[in-house]
């Protein structure tokens, strides 16, 4: 008898995911081999997605983590991603609708490859100059990035930041204009690949961003990439501490705020549909 896989399709700023609830169907994890993941993520032959999110019960319930749920992330090529900001917001939206995550309080903790992260639900006010300016956003509290390593390539120095996954950020205008060519050269700066963020500051409170993700390619949005980019801009003196920064991505807008000991990422997350797939 052929097994079926129940899934939920969600998106955050156009970054779309297949969510599998292993709390309800633990057996599915055994089926998630790279070949199946790649097939499911292919738009023309499968469901179509930038990656797969797996919801699990957290293995540990330490006082420090306070996390009841855990998120596993697989890239579209079948490789494992330690962290995905847009994916986490999508998973939280699913937990809100199916498990009443925010029924008793406006925050929770989710265990990820970057450790336990605090998530919140709030209404974000974009300002009086916009129609429908108040939207219900999901926020994720991220640690400040650490320097994972420094790489020398073709007489250039690359500082790789770590937010649970590796990122390189550039604000160079020529790099922004030549991003398609440079992504091919730089995507393997380190052995497991690196996420590349090509940024263009457009005001003291806003930037444009294109991200080439390892295991996925060019994507409509990248939450951790947006965080790494705003943090880098802050270190360069482009942005101020405590100032919400609007990050304009091909798929939509994220709000990143740098605080003294952390970064907050705010953005939308929406369910698209639910279905079943043959295993």
Identify the CATH architecture of the largest domain.
Answer: Roll
Approximately how much beta-strand content do the residues carry?
over 45%
Question: How would you name the oligomeric state of the polypeptide chains in this document?
Answer: single chain
Task: Let me know the largest β-sheet.
Answer: 18 strands, mixed
The low-pLDDT segments are: 129-133
- What is the CATH first-level class name of the largest domain? Alpha Beta
Radius of gyration: 18 Å
- CATH topology tier name of the largest domain: Diaminopimelate Epimerase, Chain A, domain 1
Helicity range: 10-25%
Number of domain units = 2
Order of helices and strands: EEHEEEHEEEEEEHHEEEHEEEE
Q: Tally of extended strands? A: 18
Helix segment tally? 5
Report how far the terminal alpha carbons are from each other: 10 Å
CATH superfamily of the largest domain: Diaminopimelate Epimerase, Chain A, domain 1
Shape: globular
What is the typical, i.e. mean, pLDDT?
Answer: 91
Tell me the structural class: alpha+beta
């Amino acid at each position: 008898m052929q097994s079926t896989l129940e899934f939920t399709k969600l998106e955050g700023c156009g970054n779309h995911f297949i969510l599998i609830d292993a709390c309800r169907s633990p057996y599915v994890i055994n089926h998630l081999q790279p070949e199946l993941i790649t097939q499911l993520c292919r738009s023309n032959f499968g469901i179509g997605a930038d990656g797969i999110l797996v919801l699990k019960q957290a293995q540990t319930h330490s006082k420090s983590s306070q996390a009841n749920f855990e998120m596993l992330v697989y890239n579209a090529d079948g490789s494992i991603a330690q962290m995905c900001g847009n994916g986490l917001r999508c998973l939280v939206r699913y937990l809100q609708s199916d498990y009443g995550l925010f029924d008793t309080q406006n925050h929770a903790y989710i265990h990820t490859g970057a450790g336990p992260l605090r998530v919140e639900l709030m209404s974000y006010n974009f300002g009086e100059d916009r129609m429908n300016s108040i939207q219900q956003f999901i926020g994720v509290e991220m640690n400040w990035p650490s320097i994972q390593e420094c790489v020398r390539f073709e007489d250039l120095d690359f500082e790789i930041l770590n937010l649970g996954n590796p990122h390189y950020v550039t604000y160079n205008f020529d790099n922004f204009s030549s991003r398609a060519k440079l992504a091919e050269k730089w995507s393997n700066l380190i052995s497991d690949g690196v996420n590349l963020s090509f940024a263009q500051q457009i005001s003291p409170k806003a930037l444009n961003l294109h991200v080439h993700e390892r295991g996925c390619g060019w994507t409509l949005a990248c939450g951790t990439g947006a965080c790494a980019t705003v943090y880098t801009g802050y270190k360069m003196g482009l942005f101020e501490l405590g100032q919400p920064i609007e990050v304009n991505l091909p798929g939509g807008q994220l709000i990143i705020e740098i605080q003294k000991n952390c970064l907050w990422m705010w953005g939308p997350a929406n369910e698209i549909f639910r279905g079943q797939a043959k295993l």
